[in-house]
Amino acid sequence: MLSNSVVAVFLSALALTSAAPYPQGTATIDTRQTKTYAAPRETRTVVAGRGGLRFDPENIVAPIGSIIEFHFTPLNHSVVESSFERPCQPKDAASFYSGFFPVPRSPDGGVTQSAEVFQIEVKNDQPIWFYCAQNTGRHCQSGMVGVVNQKFDGDKTLAKHKQLAAQVSGDSGVQPWIQGGERKANPNPLSGF
């Protein structure tokens, strides 16, 4: 027979493991196992808004475990995960969303970028489609879309995805909060691209 103190400790531990660590709706917790990397991971830089309404580069090849780091230039851009078939709309409730990055133009005409970046991890070899959700100027519908690890053996190409985006008549969608990646300090804000 167990003593009352052992039962009390067990019940306390059980209550702690079943309690939610955050109030519902304020955080996304990824409970999947992650890899431990022996060497630094590769980072691919993507610039939102350099040279107009586009991502540069817009077609990225990146190995599993690498980081895609989005930098933002004037005036106001975001990045949202979509599906090939439904551009300009979040893929699903778990799709990544950076939030908006308003960046003022430099008074002297020089290159400026956000003091923050948004990073996602490439977790598998499936294509990751994304877009800018800025509706002023209809960025996604104007071709501000991109892909990580596009398959080159079928008809799901970036060019076809841009055609589908151009046909979207409504506004671009966003998630209710920033999720699926990490906003962090820009590691090289004076890079000048």
TrEMBL record:
Origin: domain of life: Eukaryota
Region described as Disordered: spans on this chain: 170-193
Presence of the UniProt keyword Signal in the record: yes
Signal peptide start-end: 1-19
Keywords annotated in UniProt: Signal
Protein name: Extracellular serine-rich protein
Source organism of this protein record: Canariomyces notabilis
